[in-house]
Specification:
With about 700 residues, this protein is of the alpha+beta class. It contains 16 helices and 38 strands. Among the domains are: about 10-280, Beta-galactosidase, Chain A, domain 5 (Distorted Sandwich); about 295-485, Alpha-Beta Barrel (TIM Barrel), CATH 3.20.20.70. A hairpin with a 7-residue loop joins strand 6 (about 80-95) and strand 7 (about 105-115).
Length: about 700
Amino acid sequence: MTFANGARGVGGLLICLIAWAGMLHAQTLEVQSPGGQLKVQFQLKEGVPYYRATFGQSPVILPSRLGFRLKGAPPLKDHFKIAKKQRTSKDETWTQPWGEEKQIRNHYNELRILLEETGNLHRRMAVVFRAYDDGFGFRYEWPEQPNLKHFEIMDELTEFVLSGDHTAWWIPAFQRNRYEYLYRKTRISQIASDSIRAVHTPVTLETTDGLYLSFHEADLTDYSSMALAPVGDHTFTCELFPWWDGVKVRADTPHRSPWRTIQIARDPGGLITSHLILNLNEPNKLGDVSWVHPFKYVGIWWGMHIGKYTWASGEKHGATTENTKRYIDFAAKYGFYGVLVEGWNVGWDGNWIENSDSFRFTQPYPDYDIEELSRYAASKGVKLIGHHETSAGIENYERQMDDAFAFLKKYGIEAVKTGYVGHGRGIKWHDAQGNVHYEWHHGQFMVRHYRKVVKKAAQYRVMLDVHEPIKDTGIRRTYPNMMTREGARGQEYNAWSAGNPPEHTTILPFTRLLAGPMDFTPGIFDLYFDQYRPQFRVHTTLAKQLALYVVLYSPWQMAADLPENYEANPRPFKFIVDVPVDWEFTRVLHARIGDYVTIVRKDRNSDDWYLGSITDENGRTLKAKLDFLEPGRKYVAEIYADGPDADYQTNPLAIDIRERLVDSNTTYTIRLAPGGGQAIRFRPATAAEERVIAPYREPTTP
């Protein structure tokens, strides 16, 4: 997919100069990133707070307002003076217990500004900026004070005034289907003209100056999540998800907002390797997390989506004792950690989406013998993985939550996938007077619930994968058991809809996955599944399904297809068996948002590297320097490439599997079919292999 940026002009710079000229007499404070290329300025002009940012010579944020409108109280947006300012710096390196990068450098300069009203109330509010070389974040803090105890936010007035009508990749907010939409690529002005109320974050921009920006938030705790509302051609304003009564946030001092974050890179790959979101979260609060670990798994899941099985009880019930044992045997044979079993518990019969109160999280269906399966799985060295689908029935789930996690503990289940299938503003709850209210998935009510589940799971030492989630804002640093989540259109859309077009997975790494890991569930080999739903299919080549294990990061990676489809294709299946899920280093070799991406990652527990490269609907050839390999050492490249005549539309199953010798001086040619991909494992060669495996040779150009 391509989109012309158009001619670069001076309009944005002129706007910047004109706007800033009127603020020359304002109070100005500045914080720079450690390397000095990013400058963030705070301005107080006639009592009104503003901020702006530049990266090198490029304006990133033009003067933009800060503040709040409150319920039943004067707004916190003007009549301020600077009561105190404080500067701090930090340069530390911390270790992720699991992740796409083992060692994370947290290097920033901070500016904290305490504002105080000049009127009679003397209310105080701090604005805190942290400047990194790869972007910045800022948040609001409200200290404990006599004239601001309990308060209710009706609107956060934060603006992001941009330097031009940039190109944006976005999905709409305040829609029925949560985050599960295909990304659109338009100018910012087009979003407003399409009558879109707001867009979800992360939203990613390519500026007319050639920078790449991603707008998101970090450390979303006891607050409403932020969407961005387009205003005119080049401005976003903060749009929080409201409670049922229109209030956006209910708070008592002391309180603080999430960080508003802007990641900045000179190429799109720099967004992928930025750790800004993680660094803006608090360190691990759980203490010993040796019980938290990444893994690969299989499960009774895809069979339901394609219609082979049902979640409900009956003739096609998937979650039976017999079928689960078959999956356990398969997992044991190929070394998978566990088996996810969906549809195991009472509540799936009938319209389960509408009957959320029917779910019982400690009551299996009669044909699912949890006692026997727990014993059988343990005898095979395999774990059962739990499943708690709530259908957005929050009250029903919270009533059973302690019993549900105790049940997992009793049967040795260390990991659970939760689900919140529900639509629009449809999450029901009752207040103390028995009145019924309805909430969004993304408002403060649900932010509180999701965090409650994370803490409850940690209490029972259970790892979490959340579907229909609140978006990731980096809390996995603070609660490492919150490992992965959905929060975008995943593989299942290929089973029962027009599906995900080839470009979808070339956009996700630069949008949704900038927030954190995604449980996309790759690895479908039977791309047509004609036996069950011949009208639908997966829109990739087979090799691309393998490459997704490297490109789309998750500490839980599912071999999502049916076991029989893997056993019928043992050679490509070997890559899924081999590929790790815990990484020491991540590098981006090629990146063009919506067109292609190549990522290499080094296994945390060996000397092996893995490469994944994918393209959109267009075939292409890329050159990759293998200088990430250890110099002076030979490697065997186990290559899983699109076949010579592969095409996702006409010949998606064609795959070319071969081995070649390479080293750090090799320049490797990646040929990608339309809708295709390539996956490679690089492992150190033995002396014997150096003698018998052919060295890689650059292909000749026809």
